[in-house]
Amino acid sequence: TGVISSLQRQLEIQESQLRRIKSEKETLQKKLRERENQLQGLSAKFCSLTEEREDKEMMVTIEKENCNLRQVVAEQESKLAEQNQLISKLQETVGQLQEEVLTSRYQLHKQRQAQDAVQSQAETLQQQELQTRVALECVTSRFERYRSKIIQATFSTAGMKPPQAELTDEEVLEAMQKIINERMDFYHLLKQKGIK
User: Fold this and answer.
1) Phi then psi for 38, rounded to 5 degrees?
2) pLDDT higher than 80, residue 43
3) Whole-model pTM?
4) Is the pLDDT of residue 117 over 70?
């Protein structure tokens, strides 16, 4: 947004300079037309003179004025050419600035779209995280109840001493394996004696 504002300020400055130079160009063209009119007027005066002496004096004056006017016209034409060249450069700069403004606006639009997409993904991920946490808490609660029942069933068996402290999963597994092994041994013993 800052880049766009800066480019728009530059664009306004360039357009202001362009208007000022066009105004100066019109002024120069107006002066050039006035000089040309003066030159035509002097030529008309020269044609209307009848006396030779006045003709000669007027001829010298007209020649001097013509020389001065030609010099002024040449200077005005030179300035006009410079103004035209400057106008072309300013128009080119204005076009570039307008293109940069459009490019910056397009990039800003794309960034906003990307930001909106990221925001939407973040909200979706937060929702999924919340659902996962709820599911994890549910599974953890069920696992703890199941583990508690296994410990209760294992250590309520005859011959097993109740635990004195918190049990690890390995200790619970060993206690269960011990009960299973003892039952298997007892089963084999009964089988050998033929007792069903």
Assistant:
1) -60, -40
2) no
3) 0.42
4) yes
d(CA 59, CA 72): 19
Place of tokens 């459009």: 102
In angstroms, the CA 76 to CA 81 distance is 9
Banded model confidence at residue 142, pLDDT cuts 50, 70, 90: very high
CA pseudo-torsion sign 32, 34, 35, 41 = positive
Which amino acid is present at 71? Q
Structure tokens at 69: 């006017």
110 vs 112: CA distance, rounded Å: 5
% of the chain with per-residue pLDDT over 90: 24
Closest CA to 93 of 85, 43, 187: 85
**Tokens 């808490």, residue?**
137
Distances in whole angstroms, Cα of residue 38 to Cα of each of 7, 27, 57: 46, 16, 18
Averaged confidence pLDDT in the chain: 85
DSSP 8-state assignment for residue 51: -
Q: What is the pLDDT of residue 130?
A: 94
Please choose, from the candidates 105, 86, 91, 107, the residue with its C-alpha nearest in 3D space to the C-alpha of residue 7. Answer: 105
Q: With beta carbons less than 8 A apart as the criterion, state whether 103 and 13 touch.
A: no
Note the pLDDT of residue 49.
Answer: 63
